[in-house]
């Protein structure tokens, strides 16, 4: 199959979709675990109390988890 000038196989396309869905599920699960572990409400701390340090920690967690998922997908 030719898609945007690139030859794409159905197996490769299906594998990409499955890996994307698994990666998103792991990402959401990791974020909920993070929310469960922390003793305070993340939303309140970042938005209401303007806790910049917590925003940096959550952002670092998101980037780190995304790097791990990308490495697992690429093999």
Unreliable residue runs: none
Whole-number average pLDDT?
A: 82
Oligomer: single chain
Strand order of the largest sheet: 1-2
- The overall strand count is 2
Amount of beta strand:
5-15%
Q: In angstroms, what is the radius of gyration?
A: 17 Å
| Biggest beta sheet attributes | 2 strands, antiparallel
Q: Helix share of residues?
A: over 70%
Cα shape: elongated
Distance between the termini: 25 Å
N-to-C series of helices and strands: EEHHH
What is the structural class?
mainly alpha
**Count, helices:** 3
Question: What does this entry look like structurally?
Answer:
The model has no long low-confidence stretch (mean pLDDT 82). The chain is elongated and about 50 Å long. The protein starts with a strand and ends with a helix. It has three helices and two strands; from the N terminus they run ββααα. A hairpin with a 2-residue loop joins β1 (2-3) and β2 (6-7). It is mainly alpha-helical. The chain has a two-stranded antiparallel ribbon. The protein has helices at residues 10-37, 42-48, 52-74, and strands at 2-3, 6-7. α1 (10-37) packs antiparallel against α3 (52-74). The longest helix is centred in the first third of the chain and has 28 residues, at 10-37. Helix content is 77%, strand content 5%.
Keywords:
single chain; 75 residues; mainly alpha; 3 helices; 5% strand; elongated
Helix and strand layout, with pairings?
Layout: E1 2-3, E2 6-7, H1 10-37, H2 42-48, H3 52-74
Antiparallel strand pairs: 1-2
């Amino acid at each position: 199959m030719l898609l945007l000038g690139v030859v794409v196989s159905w197996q490769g396309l299906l594998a990409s979709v499955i890996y994307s869905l698994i990666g998103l599920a792991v990402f959401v699960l990791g974020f909920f675990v993070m929310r469960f572990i922390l003793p305070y409400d993340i939303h309140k701390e970042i938005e209401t109390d303007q806790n910049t340090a917590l925003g940096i920690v959550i952002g670092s967690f998101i980037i780190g988890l995304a790097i791990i998922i990308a490495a697992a997908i690429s093999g």
